[in-house]
């Protein structure tokens, strides 16, 4: 599946919006900035809005929350109309949880009372009739357990680390029983260590939540770890949108040409080699070995493979220390400028093929005389296989 280009304006959906997922169109001139974007996101899972600073990500998020009202806007969430023409659901009626860059907790309240505030917000919305009482309940204990915040209950907000604060802010947002969770660079104010602490919690949340999450970031490694769907923005426009692996490996898009271009591969655990502490994962085109015990047979895992960690050969590798090699087909070779070529490869059967990126030198491309359609063997350095989160079933 390739990333799809957005349909052009005018600002009305050509067909009725689907009853699941989120369909949005927003357009406006804001000072010298012009926004004109449209996208459709699935009804669950994490969708990342990704793009350079100033491309309009936060503006779009504010439009989704109703905090910014553009005259030319249309928004449908799981079949409910939040904005169309003159119709506009005000922000306090929208069942939206919003997590900002800096956790906006009440400093005079304990962690427990900050969380209770989230519950009260849900009750208020329910009493006002803007949300059914039993709608998409996310139980208190589940939220607390998923985010590991029970031991923080009695702490005052100033006694929390940045990562703990952000976990509580996410918990509070979830307890307001949102139908849509918006996260605006929730990790950007944290140092590397705090980011690494909080990412596993976000991964667990992702698997447990049955609501759409829109996640704004300009850190691609974060997006590669968490997102299922990618909306790539530039200059107020949507450049592409689609499943993350397809957008990452689309040679028409800038991500493929970055120095740290990477592929996300989904794998299913098929076994564990205890003698060498290696997990075996079935991926498109074969089986790979990944260090460590990564879970039970049948569990899904996400692997991130840097293009620069993939080398190519015409023959199956012999006499090499590289454990992982997969048969692949060359789709194209894209000059990256300088000495490099990014090779777009297909793994697996044509009907279910997955793409893999390899970054090789121009000299190697010529020496191997690679052409589209030809068979090669892609060698993956085991160290480059970075297990991420479990995938939703
Ligand atoms: N109300 C407004 N009036 C004028 N300009 C605005 C308004 N709101 C946003 N902008 C401009 O729109 C552009 C996009 O801003 P936005 O914050 O949405 O970008 P962003 O992609 O989230 O950036 P960053 O990653 O740096 O947070 C910026 O140039 C900003 O100055």
From TrEMBL:
Domain of life: Bacteria
Keywords assigned: ATP-binding, Cell inner membrane, Cell membrane, Membrane, Molybdenum, Nucleotide-binding, Translocase, Transport
Keyword Cell membrane in record: yes
Domain Mop: residue ranges: 319-389
Gene3D superfamilies (UniProt xref): 2.40.50.100, P-loop containing nucleotide triphosphate hydrolases
Gene Ontology molecular function terms on file: ABC-type transporter activity; ATP binding; ATP hydrolysis activity; molybdate ion transmembrane transporter activity
All residue ranges annotated as the ABC transporter domain in the record: 19-260
SUPFAM superfamilies linked to this entry: MOP-like, P-loop containing nucleoside triphosphate hydrolases
One GO location term (cellular component): membrane
Organism lineage: Bacteria, Pseudomonadati, Pseudomonadota, Alphaproteobacteria, Rhodospirillales
InterPro entries named in the record: AAA+_ATPase, ABC_transporter-like_ATP-bd, ABC_transporter-like_CS, Mo/tungstate-bd_C_term_dom, ModC_ABC_ATP-bd, Molybdenum_import_ModC, Mop_domain, P-loop_NTPase
NCBIfam families: modC_ABC (TIGR02142)
Record Pfam families: ABC_tran (PF00005), TOBE (PF03459)
Origin species: Pararhodospirillum oryzae
Presence of keyword NADP: no
Descriptive protein name: Uncharacterized protein
Signal peptide limits: none
């Amino acid at each position: 599946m390739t990333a799809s280009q957005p349909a052009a304006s005018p600002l009305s959906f050509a067909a009725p919006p689907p009853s699941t997922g989120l369909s949005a169109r927003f357009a406006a001139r804001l000072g010298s900035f012009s926004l004109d974007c449209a996208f459709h996101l699935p009804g669950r899972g994490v969708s990342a809005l990704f793009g350079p600073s100033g491309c309009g990500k936060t503006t779009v998020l504010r439009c989704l929350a109703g905090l910014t009202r553009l005259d030319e806007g249309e928004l449908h969430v799981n079949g409910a109309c939040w904005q169309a023409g003159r119709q506009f659901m005000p922000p306090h009626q929208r069942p939206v949880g919003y997590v900002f860059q800096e956790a906006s907790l009440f400093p005079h309240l304990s962690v427990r009372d900050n969380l209770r505030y989230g519950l009260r917000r849900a009750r208020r919305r329910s009493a006002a009739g803007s949300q059914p009482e039993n709608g998409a309940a996310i139980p208190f204990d589940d939220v607390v357990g998923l985010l590991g915040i029970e031991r923080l209950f009695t702490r005052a907000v100033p006694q929390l680390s940045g990562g703990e604060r952000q976990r509580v802010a996410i918990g509070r947002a979830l307890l307001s029983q949102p139908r849509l969770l918006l996260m605006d660079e929730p990790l950007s104010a944290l140092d590397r260590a705090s980011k690494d602490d909080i990412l596993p919690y976000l991964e667990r949340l992702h698997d447990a939540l049955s609501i759409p999450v829109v996640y704004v970031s300009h850190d691609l490694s974060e997006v590669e770890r968490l997102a299922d769907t990618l909306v790539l923005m530039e200059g107020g426009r949507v450049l592409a949108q689609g499943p993350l692996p397809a957008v990452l490996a689309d040679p028409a898009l800038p991500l493929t040409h970055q120095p740290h271009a990477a592929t996300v591969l989904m794998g299913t655990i098929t076994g564990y080699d205890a003698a060498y502490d290696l997990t075996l994962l079935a991926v498109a085109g074969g089986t790979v070995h990944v260090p460590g015990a990564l879970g039970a047979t049948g569990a899904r895992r996400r692997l991130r493979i840097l293009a620069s960690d993939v080398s190519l050969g015409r023959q199956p590798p012999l006499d090499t220390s590289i454990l992982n090699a997969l048969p692949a087909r060359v789709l194209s070779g894209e000059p990256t400028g300088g000495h490099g070529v990014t090779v777009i490869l297909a793994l697996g059967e044509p009907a279910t093929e997955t793409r893999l990126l390899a970054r090789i030198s121009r000299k190697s491309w010529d020496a191997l005389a690679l052409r589209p359609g030809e068979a090669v063997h892609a060698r993956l350095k085991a160290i480059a296989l970075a297990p991420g989160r479990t995938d939703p079933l």
